[in-house]
Write a structure and sequence with these properties.
Layout lengths: L1 E5 L10 H7 L2 H12 L3 E6 L3 E7 L4 E9 L2 E6 L10 H26 L28 H19 L15 H124 L1
Antiparallel strand pairs: 1-5, 2-3, 3-4, 4-5
């Protein structure tokens, strides 16, 4: 992965953490800072113009080359992360270089403040070849790196077989923190697996509990449906009873009307009966009168 961004700094050592954080992704800066605190960064060769380094990432060892050229910061990393404008590994390298360069800058400032007398330089011959520059010191030896790579390959195979990491007591020096970081990651992975197993067991228990609740809910829903059917049936029966009561009320009202009619008829019959009694009494009186008249006429 290669990135190129504008940079106003004249030297790489002037790139402090706030400046780096201001231009990179927040999450990438956070992870790069974690790599720095976990001592995963190794600077192979560095000056204020270019840095060559290696970083132990979560998936392996990645190599970086960071240059400051013509007002641009050019970073190249062997990872394939899509982080812009700089990956987490390059960020960790810049943070490590800033931390590594601070003591050297302080020493240079002190030496400039109190310069020591310089020994006289021998005369140089223009025709002679220039003296070779001393090679910059490196933090790691090639043998240590090769031993670490061999141990790392054995460790990968052991992890694939589900075995613990191989013994690393013979490996020391500057790669010991790398190995310790890998062991810490392996311990975290095992702890994560245990946590995952516990979570899966808890999830299965909860799923069984949810299954029981679902069955109870289904049974309750069936009971509710049966209760609704009974309620509908009772409602229909109540409606039919109301209709019957309405009919009974109509019959009662008709019976009441018939009773009043019967009472009026009975009163009429009684009144006519009294009239008939009076008429019969009149007939008796007439009969008695006629009999008396007949007797008188017979006596004459």
């Amino acid at each position: 992965m290669r990135n190129k961004i504008p940079c106003s700094a004249e030297r790489l050592s002037l790139l402090d953490p706030p400046m780096i954080q201001a231009v990179v992704d927040r999450n990438a800066f956070h992870i790069g800072n974690q790599y720095l605190s976990q001592n995963r960064v190794r600077i192979v060769e560095a000056d204020d113009a270019q840095i060559t380094s290696a970083v132990i990432g979560n998936s392996g060892l990645y190599e970086q080359t960071i240059r400051l050229k013509e007002g641009h910061l050019i970073s190249k990393c062997s990872c394939a992360l899509p982080e812009e404008p700089m990956c987490r590994h390059s960020i960790a390298v810049l943070l490590e270089y800033h931390r590594w360069a601070q003591p050297r800058n302080n020493q240079q400032k002190k030496s400039k403040a109190s310069p020591a007398p310089q020994p006289a330089e021998p005369p140089t011959n223009r025709d002679s070849a220039p003296a070779p520059r001393s090679a910059p010191t490196t933090d790691l030896k090639l043998g240590e790196v090769m031993a670490f790579v061999e141990w790392f390959q054995l460790g990968v195979k052991a992890l694939e077989r589900g075995e613990p990491l191989p013994e690393s007591s013979k490996l020391g020096g500057d790669i010991a923190p790398w190995i310790q970081a890998i062991r810490n990651l392996e311990e975290r992975r095992r702890e994560s697996e245990e946590i995952q197993i516990n979570l899966e067991s808890d999830m299965r228990t909860r799923e069984a509990y949810v299954g029981r609740l679902t069955q109870q809910l289904q049974a309750s829903m069936e009971e509710m449906k049966a209760a609704q059917a009974n309620a509908q049936q009772l409602q229909q029966e109540l409606t039919s009873c109301k209709e019957m009561l309405a009919k009974v009320a109509e019959v009662v009202s008709e019976v009441g009307s018939y009773d009043s009619q019967l009472k009026s008829i009975a009163s009429e019959v009684l009144s006519k009966g009294s009239q008939l009694d009076k008429l019969a009494h009149s007939f008796r009186e007439v009969s008695i009168t006629l009999r008396a008249i007949a007797k008188n006429s017979a006596n004459l």
